[in-house]
Amino acid sequence: MKPILALNAFEMKDAAALGAALEERVRQRAKVFGAASVLFYDRPLEFVRGEGCWLYDADGAAYLDAYNNVPSVGHCHPHVVQAATRQLGQLNIHNRYLHHGIVDYAERLLATLPADLSNVTFTCTGSESNDLALRLAANFTGGQGVIVTEAAYHGNTALVTESSPTSYKQGAPPLRVRVVPAPDSHRIPQERLSDTFAGGVAAAIEDLERNGVRFSALIVDSIFSSDGVFADPPGFLRAAIDVVHRAGGLFIADEVQPGFGRTGASLWGFQRHGVLPDIVTMGKPMGNGYPIGALVTRAEILEVFCGRYGYFNTYAGSPVAAAVGHAVLDVIERELLMDNAARVGAYLKQRLAGLSVRHAELADVRGAGLYIGVELQRSSDGAPAPERAAAIINQLRDRRVLIGAAGRFGSVLKIRPPLCFTAAHADHLVAVLDDVLTGAS
Ligand code: PMP
User: Fold this and answer.
1) How far is the CA of 60 from the centre of ligand 1 (A)?
2) Residue 153 near ligand 1, beta carbon < 6 Å
3) Which atom of ligand 1 is nearest to the CA of 130?
4) CB under 8 Å, gap of 24 or more: what pairs does 267-271 form?
5) Separation of alpha carbons 156 and 336, rounded Å
6) Is the shortest distance between the CB of 178 and ligand 1 below 6 Å?
7) How far away, in angstroms, is 282 Cα from ligand 1 center?
8) pLDDT digits (tens, 9 = 90+) for 202-226
């Protein structure tokens, strides 16, 4: 399996081929960041400005952003920028004082979720949200056993890294973490998808218990982004969640990727599947670039944890975080971005499916709303084609269109633009992709 940070990554051994100026920039950075430096693309990019779905380099060249989900309502959206700067100029402190902004925001967020999920805890990142979720689940169930999908990524703390198989370049998660096959809709027949996934979860629970590890939680990202984008048929998650609940475990819905309207069908990805999580975690698109995260759960789950530990997060739930969170929801509502994700996403998917008729190497086009995966296969034998995916991603970059890679082999084109993506942007992306695919054949 390809580690997540190896997908579409620049390799330092290629630095000499960049030309003097770019090579110098890359080396300067590698010197200070050391082994942790990761850059995208064979020719790394440097931007100076962003607006809507566009990123601009120092020469003013515009790149169509069909990759970034953090600036979910559009790069530097003026409503969000104004909300943040206004509040920064007025008051910004931690949340151990009363402040109406964050309580209003918490109420607004909770109103979008099932009534049982009545308590919210703010964090700064998706990783922190998932770290806390796993701790809540362990304390509530008395178990340590966690189930994740095989190419899952849930964040970067010590605990969450252990539940993120794609973080491992060597070795594998500890035995209390069980890895199950993803619901791969390209390789598993649709009518068997739900039962196959649920069967994997049931087997993992049995295996945990057999090895003396009590089951605690299943954590999944309901759009299965790092696994390669598996969205359909809606509802396929239900059987697995039933298995989890029957075994006394909790279901943690990681909404860092599908949340805030991206799938077009509902604000939250789990709602597309008609399931009820015990814990919901959020991050990235929540703040459009400002670091806000959250965890939402039932009161009793939080109570068990808080009877044993405290939880305070200095920058979480600050007045600025609240102002930004409100502003992002304002934009999603006012600009009908969820509808846009549904409409433009369906259009883009249909246009990409059209391309796949002419280009046999596009084996599958799938996804929900503005989260689309395109599976690349070797034309000769249908095997996954990660090298080809990487080449296409870099050729698109050279033509100023930005996408990424996903999937356990790295053979899936990941298309995940800001939610203000239009049909014209979709046409541009498809035209450039068509060019790239035709050029190579
Ligand atoms: N969960 C999922 C599904 C993610 O994709 C990510 C980030 N890629 C995270 C959690 C972690 O979020 P963060 O990087 O903000 O900590």
Assistant:
1) 31
2) yes
3) 10
4) 267/112, 267/332, 267/338, 268/112, 268/113, 269/221, 269/222, 269/223, 269/368, 270/222, 270/237
5) 33
6) no
7) 9
8) 999 999 999 999 999 999 999 999 9
Given a cut of 50, is residue 441 above it in pLDDT?
no
Give per-residue pLDDT as tens, 319-361.
Answer: 999 999 999 999 999 999 999 999 999 999 999 999 999 999 9
Say if residue 431 is exposed, middle or buried (CB neighbours under 10 Å; 0-12, 13-18, 19+): middle
Interior/surface letters 60-85, b for 16+ CB within 10 angstroms, e for the rest: eeebbbbbbbbbbbbbebebbeebbe
411 lines ligand 1 (CB under 6 A): no
Q: Whose CA is nearest to atom 10 of ligand 1?
A: 154
Q: Which atom of ligand 1 is nearest to the CA of 127?
A: 16
Q: pLDDT tens digits for 65-98?
A: 999 999 999 999 999 999 999 999 999 999 999 9
Tell the residue nearest (CA) to atom 16 of ligand 1: 127
Round to whole Å and give the CA distance between 212 and 200: 19
Spatial distance between the Cα atoms of 230 and 144, rounded to a whole number of angstroms: 27
Evaluate: CB of 397 within 6 angstroms of ligand 1. Answer: no
